[in-house]
């Protein structure tokens, strides 16, 4: 079994949309326009490809986006810098095999050289103790709760401190920027970034 975690490509979008909308109640449905927003704007949008098939994906956004998710807005109101995991979806055939942990390790590696916090939410209605335990063992702490809309589910808002960030900021981000190596590269997408902190974090050595 050959596994690759890679940036999404445009021709993956139909498969990603179908996977998202087959995931069940704990993943909000998307339409093609919403998925295109993520394709154009998401700072992290990677898929897991196993033997040529899309087995899962994870989408994450940094601060400063015009994304209208109530949970993303909550983090924007409380923290100046963060990476927000909007959704992770694993195909049924590949669940309970550790692919979620692989994705979380990957997005953690992306986040810890750019921001001090990795954030997300988990649904409390319906509550999935496997999901709650997964995030707790990965270092997330609850920092708040809210209801998504007047009749939406109650969610637990989670944050994980990234202790490596202070070193990276002092050693690289406050100076010449991150080294120009592939594993530190930013995803190429069409959003225009006006946030100076993010431009600094994405800087490259001359």
TrEMBL record:
Pfam family, one: Acetyltransf_1
All copies of domain N-acetyltransferase, residue ranges: 3-163
Domain of life of the source: Bacteria
GO terms for MF: acyltransferase activity, transferring groups other than amino-acyl groups
Annotated keywords: Transferase
Name assigned to this protein: GNAT family N-acetyltransferase
Gene source species: Dyella soli
């Amino acid at each position: 079994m050959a596994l690759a975690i890679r940036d999404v490509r445009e021709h993956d979008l139909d498969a990603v949309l179908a996977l998202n909308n087959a995931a069940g109640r704990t993943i909000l449905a998307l339409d093609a326009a919403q998925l295109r927003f993520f394709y154009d704007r998401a700072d992290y949008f990677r898929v897991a490809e196993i033997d040529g098939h899309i087995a899962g994906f994870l989408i994450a956004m940094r601060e400063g986006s015009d994304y209208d998710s109530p949970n993303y807005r909550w983090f924007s109101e409380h923290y100046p810098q963060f990476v927000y995991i909007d959704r992770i979806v694993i195909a049924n055939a590949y669940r309970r095999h550790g692919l979620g942990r692989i994705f979380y390790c990957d997005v953690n590696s992306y986040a810890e050289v750019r921001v001090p916090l990795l954030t997300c939410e988990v649904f409390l209605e319906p509550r999935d103790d496997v999901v709650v335990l997964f995030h707790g063992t990965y270092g997330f702490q609850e920092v708040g709760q809210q209801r998504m809309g007047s009749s939406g589910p109650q969610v637990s808002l989670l944050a994980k401190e990234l202790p490596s960030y202070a070193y990276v900021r002092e050693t690289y981000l406050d100076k010449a920027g991150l080294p120009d190596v592939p594993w530190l590269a930013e995803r190429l997408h069409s959003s225009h970034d006006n946030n100076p902190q993010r431009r600094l974090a994405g800087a490259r050595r001359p």
